[in-house]
Each structure stands twice: as structure tokens, then as C-alpha cells.
Amino acid sequence: MKNIAIGIQDFKVLREKNAFYLDKTKQLYDLLSSDTVHYFFSRPRRFGKSLLLSTIKYLFLGEKDLFKDLYIEKKWNFRETNPVMHLSFSSYTDDQNLEEFIQNTAKVFYKNSENKLIEKKIGEYEKFNLLYILEEIYKETGKKTVIIVDEYDKPVLAHLKNTEKAEEVRKFFSSFYAPVKDNDQYIRLFFLTGLTKLMKMSVFSVLNNLDDITFKGGHLDLIGYTQEEMESNFTLEIKEIAKEKNLSYEKLVEKLKIDYNGFNFGDDSLKLYNPWDINNFFVKKQFGYYWADTGIPSAVRNYIKDSSTNIQEMFEKVKNNELMITETELRVQDLSKLKIEILFLNSGYLTIKKVIEDRFYLLNFPNKETETVMGEYFLSLAYQESVNLYKWRETSDKIVNAIFNKDKESLQSSIHFLIYDILSTTPYDWLNKNPEGWFKTLLGVAIRMNSIYYWPETQNIKGRIDFHIPKDNTIYVLEVKINESTKKAIAQIDEKYTEQYKDLYQHIVKIGVNWNKKRKKVEVELNV
After folding, report:
1. How far is CA 312 from the centre of its chain?
2. Is-contact 224 47, C-beta < 8 A?
3. Using CA atoms, how far apart are residues 387 and 383, in angstroms rounded to an integer?
4. Residue 437: phi, psi to the nearest 5?
5. Of the ranges 202-211, 275-284, 351-360, 371-380, which one carries the lowest mean pLDDT score?
6. Range of 152's domain?
7. Long-range pairs for 124-128 at CB < 8 Å and ≥24 separation?
8. Cα maximum dimension of the chain
9. What mean pLDDT, rounded, does the chain reach?
10. Helix axes 98-105, 163-177, angle to 10 degrees
11. What is the structure's pLDDT at 456?
């Protein structure tokens, strides 16, 4: 079995520990073999951006032994080395002085005439000026510098709701990055990573030749695990865990796909796993929301808490396949008008479901993990943290058990409790605007909290079903109404949807749910 290390982001440490590394050096070689010098690459957290930059660093430093038995070992010219400047803003906090932070944390690595690795802090140079530093490095080594910048946008995102401070940070970077333009005589490679493409940062306005490989081009699987990579690299682990859990190999693979796969960055046929989830799963040998448990990015959390963003409305659009953004909106021009969908997409809570005409992006949840987290955490923020998540989860258990046990009274009382107790702080305007959409979304979240996978808004030629839940040889069909009747809901199921299931399942359980807002009452009809 593999020695899988968790949390190591330094390629050298990983290799020296003989820990598992899924070989991405072919993709890296293809990227670095082009004539392009300036790159921008965005991926969600814990996806492997830092490990990628570390791999690039050791390539250009000529550390050939680290690449033994990898694809790139016999392709790369390790005799040709370059100094590497490494800037990472991952540890930056909003109360730090940017200039001091860079001087204390940014480092330059190169080899001297005796072939020994030299490490030098940027703060040791006489001037704090990128052009001056690049010139000095060239004088010392006679070689161009590789510049790698991790989480470049964190100092700006830390001040999303303080536009004055954000503008101050932006101006600082405007002068800091300016020398990168028109100084290719000192630069071998410039590789920038982050969550969001902030167009007003001078690195984008000045470097109009910066190649953004985030959503387009042939490098979409530069990091992340494809389905084929996951299965071919972890075959033994899958077999062992499947045996322990009394599952077939195929069943376990399918569950992994539902829980963790689904990240799409522009190619509808290429879905990716976040390595953090997969590595943790094979170490701990059980399912868990490992990526979600590493914490919500503070920029996203604070933005939701401090803004009037209607998360409920966004959920509704996702559920109805209506959440769309444009190519232009991805390139954030004005921080004050940043759409929350862009933050969710770039931080990994949403992904691209489909690309339309090369400039429209239909968004959805990547997998069950992200959808559950969105339901539990972000909706609680939308309710100003007044929702008791323990009670919500407990009530969700009751709702799901009532559905599977065909317990009409328990289902009725549990849904009533969800609306009038747990979610009693819901703003009146939300309900008044689209009560059916709000009701369906919250009922859907309650079902998904129990790791129950359902198909929402499934359409046929006669209409669309609100929910259907397949389980073993039974299909549970739910139709939701507002201020109507449960009998009408059951009749609608019989008339429009029963026919398509009768040859697929032995049993069909029809459930009609009506929320009578006027009488503040939930009514349930169950027909087996």
C-alpha cells in the first residue's frame, strides 16, 4: 500500500519521504516546453497549487534526483538551471504591512559556482524594488529568474468589504509588479496563482500577455486527479477498502465519484477530484468531508456575512439550472461589484457544469460534499447564524426516515418544525418573493444533509418532478405545493410521472406535500 502523506506542499520533502506523488510532470513538461513566459492559473484551495509551484522551483534549480522515475526525468535538461524567486501570500493576514511581509517571507534560491544551493531573503537586498532585485540576481548568477507567486490575491481579498484598504493594497501591487513588464531579459518564467482574476491589479492590466490557463487551453488537468488517474493509481486501495466495507469495486468507485468528483474547469468531458479528499480517504479508509473540514476561506466567509447576498436565491438558481455567469464577469473589474458566484466558483463550492458558446458558464455544485457544505454552512450564514445546525440535522434525519418508513405523521410534523422553528427567522420578503422555490430548496438541503442523493426537478415531456429518490427497488416521488392540496400533488404524480417508473422499480411511493402558508400548516399525503 502507498505511503500517502497529508498536508505536505513541498515537492522535495514529499519525494525524500518516499511519499506518494501522482505524476503530473508530463502535463508540467508540456506547459513549460512552450515559448510562453507569463502564466496565470487559478484553482480552489487544497487542490495542489502550492505543490505545483514547488515542483516548478526544484525543476529550475536542477534537482534531478527528486524526479527519479517520473515522466520528466529524461525529458528535462537539469544542467540548465535558473534562480527562483518564491513569493507566497498564504500566511498573510489583513493587519500586516505588505512591504514588510514580502521582505520577511519572499526568498530567492539559486546555485553558486560550487553547485551549492543558496537561499536569500528579498529583504537582504539594498532596495525593495522588483526590477533592482532582478538586476542584482542577474549580476550574481548571469541567469534569468523564475518568479512563482502563490495566492497573489489574498491581500486584496482580505479587504473585500473595505474598498479603501483594498484600493491601497492594489496600488501597492501596481508599482510592485510593474517591472515584470518589458524586462524579459531578466525573467525566465512568471507563474501566478490565486483564487480570482482581479483585472485592476496591475499584473493583469500591465501584463496583457499574461496567459490565463485557468479555464481554457490544454492544461486543465495540470493539477487534480482525473477519474482514470484516481482508479489506475489507487486500484489496490480501492479493492482493500471495498472488501472491508463489503462493497463491490464498482460500487465504491461510484460512491467516490458522487462524493468527490465533479470539478470542471471548462471541458465538459474532463471532471476532476480534489487530491485532498482522495488522499485523506485512502489514508483514513472512510468517507468524510475532508476538503470542507479544512475551513471556509475567510474572504468568502466575511463577504457573505457583511453583504446582503441572498444565498437562498442562488441555491434556487442552481437547483433549477439557471445560475449563469459570463466570461466578462470572471475577470473582476470592480471589487465593489464582485458577484458572490465568482467567489464560490473560484473557491471550489461551485463548478462549471456546461460551457455555452465559449463565453457563458452554467454553474452547479461539483459533488455531494460541496453541496452539503453549502447547505449547512452558507445557509446558516445567510440566516445570520441564528439557525441551530444540530437541530436542523436532527430534523433532517427525521424527514428522511419518515420518507423511507412511509410515516406520514412524522414527515408532516418534521417539515412543520423545520419551517416554523428552525427557520423561523427567515425574512418575510424571501418567502413572499418565491415561497415554492424557498420551500423546495430547504427541503432539498434537509435531504442531502443525510447523504441521501436525490434527483431534483427531473423533467419529462409532461412536466417536471420536484424530487425523486431511488433506493433499492423503490422510487420515492415527492411533489410540493403551496396553498393548494396534497390530493392535487398526488394526482399530478399519477398523471404525469408514474408511467416512466413502473418498469424500472418494483414499488413507487408517491408523496404529496402542501405548505398552507395562510393557515401556517404543513399537510402530507402518502400513497404507496
Report:
1. 19
2. yes
3. 6
4. -65, -45
5. 202-211
6. 11-212
7. 128/99, 128/102, 128/103
8. 85
9. 85
10. 50
11. 47
- 171 vs 237: CA distance, rounded Å: 50
Count of CB atoms within 10 A of residue 507's CB? 13
Q: Which residues of 472-495 are buried (b: 16+ CB within 10 A; e: fewer)?
A: eebbbbbbbbbeeebeebbbbbee
Query: What separation in angstroms does the CA of 406 have from each of 415, 487, 511, 526?
Result: 14, 17, 9, 7
Residue type, 93: T
Domain boundary among the residues 368, 399, 423 is at 368
Cα 21 from Cα 72, distance rounded (Å) = 13
Cell of 118: 543558496
DSSP 3-state of 38 = strand
Q: Which long-range contacts (CB under 8 A, 24 or more apart) does 517-525 make?
A: 517/431, 517/435, 517/482, 517/483, 518/483, 520/420, 521/416, 522/412, 522/415, 522/416, 522/419, 523/412, 523/485, 523/486, 524/408, 524/411, 524/412, 524/415, 524/486, 525/408, 525/486, 525/487, 525/489, 525/490
CA–CA separation, 74 and 445 (whole Å): 51
* CA dist 324 → 33, 299, 330 (Å): 35, 22, 11
Contacts of the segment 227-230: beta carbons below 8 A, 24+ positions apart:
227/257, 227/261, 227/271, 227/273, 229/22, 230/256, 230/261, 230/273, 230/278
Same domain, 350 and 448: no
Mean pLDDT lowest for which of 18-22, 169-173, 179-183, 377-381?
377-381
Contact predicate 484/381, CB 8 Å: no
**144, 235: one domain:** no
In this predicted model, what pLDDT tens digit does every residue of 100-112 receive, in sequence order? 999 999 999 998 7
> Residues 138, 243: one domain?
no
C-alpha–C-alpha distance, residues 118 and 105, integer Å: 16
| Residue 514 belongs to a domain | yes
SS3 321: coil
**Burial status of residue 8 (CB atoms within 10 A of its CB: 0-12, 13-18, 19 or more):** middle
Q: Is 447 helix (H, G, I), strand (E, B) or coil?
A: helix
Report the C-alpha gap between 270 and 250 in whole angstroms.
20
Q: For residues 156 and 146, what is the distance between their CA atoms, to the nearest angstrom?
A: 24
pLDDT of residue 457: 44
**Contact, 364 vs 321, CB < 8 A?**
yes
Integer Cα distance of 495 and 493 in angstroms: 6
Place of cell 515537492: 11
For residue 184, which phi and psi values (nearest 5 degrees)?
Answer: -65, -15
Residue 330: partners with Cβ closer than 8 Å, 6 or more residues away: 197, 215, 342, 345, 361
Among the candidates 159, 181, 212, a domain finishes at 212
> What's the angle, vertex CA 22, arms to CA 351 and CA 73, rounded to 5?
125
* Beta strands per DSSP E along 38-115: 38-42, 84-88, 107-111
Residue % of the chain over a pLDDT of 90: 46
Place of cell 498536508: 7
Domain total of the chain: 4
